Amino acid sequence: MFKLIITAIIQSALLAVAQYFMKVGMDRVVDYSMSWAFCRSFLNWQLGISLLLYIIAMIIYMFMLKSYSLSVVYPLTSISYIFTTLLAMALLGERVSLGGWLGILLIMLGVGLIGSMGK
């Protein structure tokens, strides 16, 4: 189970970094219009990095599913909510409400419960 938790943390960290690059990349996309400039604006390196990280995270997720049950693996991916929130605060200057912190605490408690239940 320890191996699964470590793998889930790595996979969740990759998802969080992918989310960060997705946000930064989407901020560079021009406002919607039926133009080539709009389509080309999706071709920025931040969105490319985001896509690459999502692919790597998905491959790790598939390996996790190969060895463990879906009912254990899928909830563990919610660790990415915690990492994404911390990255948004640190790198984007976003603020988190008290309700947001309580939600993160509940996620952490849930992941702990699932992790302690075994395969």
Give your account of this protein's structure.
With 119 residues, the chain is mostly helical. It has one domain (2-116). The protein has six helices and no strands. Helix 1 packs across helix 5 (79-92). 18% of the residues are buried. The mean pLDDT is 89.
Reconstruct the topology from this structure.
Layout: H1 2-27, H2 36-40, H3 45-67, H4 70-76, H5 79-92, H6 98-116
Helix pairs in contact: 1-3, 1-5
Distance between the termini: 7 Å
Gyration radius, in Å: 17 Å
Strand fraction: under 5%
| Backbone shape | globular
H-E string: HHHHHH
Given as residue ranges, the uncertain stretches (5+ residues, pLDDT < 50) are none
The overall average pLDDT, rounded, is 89
Taking the sheet with the most strands, its summary is: none
Classify the secondary structure makeup into a structural class: mainly alpha
Query: How many strand units?
Result: 0
Tally of DSSP helical segments: 6
Helix content: over 70%
When the domains are counted, the total is 1
Task: Offer a quick outline of the entry.
It is built from six helices and no strands. With 119 residues, the protein is mainly alpha-helical.
